[in-house]
C-alpha cells in the first residue's frame, strides 16, 4: 500500500485532535470527582 502524503498528516491531525478532546473530557471528570470528594471531606 502506498501512503498518500496528503491524507497521512490529515489523519494524524484528526487523531491527535480526538485524543486531545478525550483527555480534556477525562481531566474534567477527574477534576469534578476530586471536587466532590473534597467537599465530602469538608462537611
Automatic annotation (TrEMBL):
<keyword id="KW-1133">Transmembrane helix</keyword>
<protein>
    <submittedName>
        <fullName>Uncharacterized protein</fullName>
    </submittedName>
</protein>
<feature type="transmembrane region" description="Helical">
    <location>
        <begin position="14"/>
        <end position="34"/>
    </location>
</feature>
<keyword id="KW-0472">Membrane</keyword>
<keyword id="KW-0812">Transmembrane</keyword>
